[in-house]
Amino acid sequence: MPDDTSDPRSLARIAQRKAIQRRRRAARRAASTKTAPAAHRPRSLSPTQQLGRQAEAQAEKHLTAAGVKVLKRNLLSRAGEIDLVCLDSGVLAFVEVRQRYSRRFGGAAASVGSVKQQRLARAAAYFLPSLVRTYFSGRVPPCRFDVIALDGDDLTWLKGVFNSPFR
Questions:
Q1: Single pTM value for the model
Q2: Domain assignment present for 167
Q3: pLDDT of residue 93
Q4: Within the chain, what is the greatest distance between any pair of CA atoms?
Q5: 150 and 81 part of one domain
Q6: What is the side-by-side strand order in the sheet with 81-88?
């Protein structure tokens, strides 16, 4: 059957075949060079995100030195992100780490306003069932929301910054 290039269906079939061939070539190239596809490569962090991760590591070190067990880090959901989930004397603490270089506009702790608190509560509510199953045998422990504020070189741990909607 001759290809009639004036027929739109023939043109579409030709385009589909070429697209399939391109995808197969790209897949063979990726497999031969042993590079992971873009979807599986680790995402590079922006400078601000890198500073945030450093602040979270500093906060985690402080909490661990205080005898707190860190259960999870950087839990991400549509509702928001929880930086650290910790166990402190039987209390499940959802910890938000905030960093500011100066207190000029209220400092790090002041940056956790009502909108951020609502977002943290929604994210915690999303992760609470799986945390309860994994670490507490199905029983909901007392919960609280903490903030670790890093203002310049000062680290302040604020426990129970706002009320938990869980108990």
A1: 0.72
A2: no
A3: 95
A4: 78
A5: yes
A6: 69-76, 81-88, 91-100, 143-151, 154-162
